[in-house]
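Figure-free illustration: sequence to structure, shown twice.
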Amino acid sequence: MVTTKIEIKNHLREYVVGRYNDFNEKSPVRFPDQIDLYILIWDLLVKRPENCHIDKGNLEIILPERYGSKSPEYYNYLGSRSQKKIEQKIEIMMWADFREFIENERHKNGTRIVDSVHLFMSKYGINSISEDALVKSYYRWRNRVREREKRAYSKKKFQ
């Protein structure tokens, strides 16, 4: 088992640890091999440069091992661009999961949006971002997605 550390936003780290590592922040995170993030990490792995120093970051991940291909003992380096792509992928996954969770809670259980946000944050142990920020993000997304009907205004004729 070969690990590396990457630097991502705190709320994304909390989401990943809560979702894939059962809130255990001390051990490295192992992503399931069925998700796209696992394949993305495997694609981004390159040989470690000779002048490269030790990995720093707030999230330690277990590198993917696939039979008959890149060996993690040699291909175990993720550059800054690779880390940025991984962070973007995790962010997309979190927001998609967040929006799906809120919609399911609202339509199936009739839960208010604020309460649904609190449930989501408790489910994954997210503390580094405020509930208001998540609620506002949800409302912004909903306004972008939802089509609005334009009101038909008619001019009144005064005689």
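We now fold a second protein in the same way, so the two outputs can be compared directly.
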Amino acid sequence: MSTRVGAGAVSAEIIAVGSELLTPFKSDTNSLFLTAGLNELGIAVQRKSIVGDDPTVLRDAVERALGGVDLVLLSGGLGPTDDDLTRETVAALLDRPLREAPTLVAALEERFAARGWRMPENNRRQACVPEGAEVLENPRGTAPGLWLEEDGRVVLLLPGPPRELEPMFDNVVRQRLEARVGDRRLYRRVLKVVGRGESHVAEVTQPIYDRWRQSEPAVETTILASPGLVELHLSVWSSLASSATDVLDAATAELSAALGQDLLSTDGRSLAEVVGQCLSDAGLRVGLAESCTGGLATSQLVDIPGCSRYLAGAVVAYSNDIKQRLLGVDAALLAEHGAVSEPVAAAMAEGARRAMKADVGLGVTGVAGPDGGSADKPVGTVCLAVAGPGDEVSTRLYRWPGDRAMIRRMATRAALGLLRRQLLGRG
């Protein structure tokens, strides 16, 4: 049985409304924002769904949600056109007659007049309020939000545009919900792992977090994998911040010991952030020479504020001519080993370090495809090298499956990962 709002643990469902969200051209980003906001308040999201502009389907979705959760949030479908049916559908389901609010009509007319426009007649629909609903002001748009209560549950109608929904939630809804929920909150920790695949990470960590699931408070765990990176998400629901923190600290420490230096971060920092911190802490500057990645590794470093402390410069050395002229790669080396080879990657790294007067050089060369591969060097072959600090040079050769975009992403993460290992003395 679901717990009512205000009586402890609170559950929610998010319904995104709009046929455009069921096409490849529009994504539902509102549910991500709302989930984060609700979790911060101690509200667990049990389900998310997307429904088109069909009153029957929408009615069924809301009715089902009301049978299982305490709080139903709908985003979208509050506009002035015929396909904006959220308000009408919810009002009919809850048997709440719609009535036009003169104050809302006046506010809409004033809004249009301020821009020198006449208000279209169909905008009057946005001034219709279900009986018993509370109107939530929307200073950024014409569609007000609506707060309805039904048998101890809350149904919340929010506008679809994020620039309207987000401030309405932060400035109005959050305060209302805080007054109704208990003190139970969700506390999270994100651990990022490089250098191991998902199955290898799971093999090491599964016995550990199986035990933590039995703790009090319990630690819920999720493992997420993307090319070159594995994330462990640890979550604790607790009424005491100190209790949640102690449990998360202990679980993190045990997982850290098991993962060793393959553990990239325990605070959600990205690979580029960690690499930048390593360089900055050591007082080192890096120069990059990228071929198949086309500047992706450099771009990730540049995304971090303050990168000028440790990023000397970079060059996209795609052609052999550029490799020779700008990086000093020997023509004989290219002829003997080919552009996609560990010796050439090492020469590119040395060349970048020398040309940019850096302490460390990073070289990347490969075949991203879909063409250009051979029997010896098929598409997905990538060679990496890190030169420095000092005389140390590390190289790696990889062969990855996937399309061009995936191979470039994998190469970028592996390159920054190799740079990190070198800086930690494990190249």
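Summary for the second example: The two ends are 55 Å apart (CA to CA).
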